[in-house]
């Protein structure tokens, strides 16, 4: 995701998967890995106008948030 005002990275992004199992595998495999000098944090995200709300259960979610942990 890019900041429209500054043109700089906001430090996170979203990824869609065909199956919940593939998404969970990506979360398990990527969490804690390093991307350059930044550690990756992956978790389930929900769609909503109020911003990001994380939930512990993967019910009805198909989007994974990838963040660098610095935001």
TrEMBL record:
InterPro entries registered for this protein in UniProt: Nucleotide-bd_a/b_plait_sf, RBD_domain_sf, RBM42_RBP45_47-like, RRM_dom
Signal peptide span: none
Domain annotation RRM: ranges: 1-47
One example of a Gene Ontology biological process annotation: mRNA processing
Keyword Nucleotide-binding part of the UniProt annotation: no
Top-level taxon in the UniProt lineage: Eukaryota
Region: Disordered, residue numbers: 48-71
MF annotations from Gene Ontology: mRNA binding
Entry keyword RNA-binding: yes
Keywords: mRNA processing, RNA-binding
Name the record gives this protein: Nucleolysin TIAR-like
